[in-house]
Amino acid sequence: MGVVLITCSGYFLFKMLPHVHRSVSKIVLMLLSGLLVYAGGMQLYHVWSQVQVAHVKSRLEWQRVSTAAQLQQVLAKHPAQPVVIDVYADWCVACQPIEKEVIPRSDVQAALQNVVRIKLDLTHYHPSQDELLKEWQILGPPTFIFLNAAHQEQRELRLTGTFSATHLLGKLQQLQGEQP
């Protein structure tokens, strides 16, 4: 509605002021054009801000750990199950696309249902994490570590750095193919 009003006011303004100098009318025309573009953009913004984006309704939960002891406790609770360990930190820029674009996908969520999901959170550093990083030979986040049902790392499946959903799905299929 605002775009129509601005357009009409511009039209009538130029009809009422036919004798205004050409340079002034060009400036007024540019200002009205800018205002028109702004108003149109605002209307689109209001329309798009009302649109609800469909999210995965049942996003799978990850068990958060930050120390070697916590990791061992979680692994002990889930014997004979394959495990995916997501090495993550809030400050990790490369982790964000994985968290926001790869993991929420419905096909990835479906593939993750049959594995134990552990998020090794390195957001708040403490010295005990050095031992854990050294033991698992983790260079830093993002890293995905895949353990078979005997909780042995399948090193060839490890993902370090950014990766696509297709790449993760392939690794999960390989991990689950290892199960008896």
How would you spell out the order of helices and strands?
HHEHEHHEHEEH
Reported by name, the CATH topology of the largest domain is Glutaredoxin
Q: Mind telling me the C-alpha Rg?
A: 28 Å
CATH class of the largest domain: Alpha Beta
Strand order of the largest sheet: 1-3-2-4-5
> What's the N-to-C terminus distance?
65 Å
The named CATH superfamily of the largest domain: Glutaredoxin
Estimate what percentage of residues fall within beta strands. Answer: 5-15%
Number of domains: 2
Total beta strand runs = 5
- Helicity level: 40-55%
Properties at a glance:
180 residues, Glutaredoxin, alpha/beta
Please render the helix and strand layout as text.
Layout: H1 2-16, H2 22-50, E1 63-65, H3 68-77, E2 83-88, H4 95-102, H5 106-112, E3 116-121, H6 128-136, E4 143-147, E5 159-160, H7 165-177
Parallel strand pairs: 1-3, 2-3
Antiparallel strand pairs: 2-4, 4-5
Helix pairs in contact: 1-2, 5-7
Could you give a quick summary of the protein structure above?
The chain is built from 7 helices and 5 strands; from the N terminus they run ααβαβααβαββα. The protein is an alpha/beta fold and 180 residues long.
Explain how this protein is built.
It is built from seven helices and five strands. The chain is of the alpha/beta class. The chain has two domains: 2-50; 63-177, 3-Layer(aba) Sandwich (Glutaredoxin), CATH 3.40.30.10. Strands 1-3-2-4-5 form a five-stranded mixed beta sheet, sandwiched between helices.
